[in-house]
Amino acid sequence: MDKEVEDVIDKIRIFRKEKKIYILTLSVDSGISRSHLFYIESKKTIPSLETLAKIAHAMNLHLKDFFI
Question: What is the CATH number of the domain that holds 31?
Fold first, then answer.
């Protein structure tokens, strides 16, 4: 896995924890299964741009926030 991809995944986890959002809550709000979110945060799978957009929207972020 590329360093850039790992950085994006790390930001997902950081933003989620800063906002005190549980994975289950993020799952419901984003429409992404809890297990898929777990695999993303565990760096076992790479999220698509569509998935990143859903996660960003559910956390009231912009997609670009994951890449800055």
Answer: 1.10.260.40
Rounded CA-CA distance 11/29 in Å is 18
Q: What is the pLDDT of residues 5-24, one digit of tens each?
A: 999 999 999 999 999 999 99
Phi, psi of 58 (to 5 degrees): -65, -25
Q: Per-residue pLDDT averaged across 33-53, rounded?
A: 97
Domain total for the chain? 1
Residue 11 structural domain? 3-63
The Cα–Cα gap between 28 and 49 comes to 19
Rounded mean pLDDT, 40-47: 96
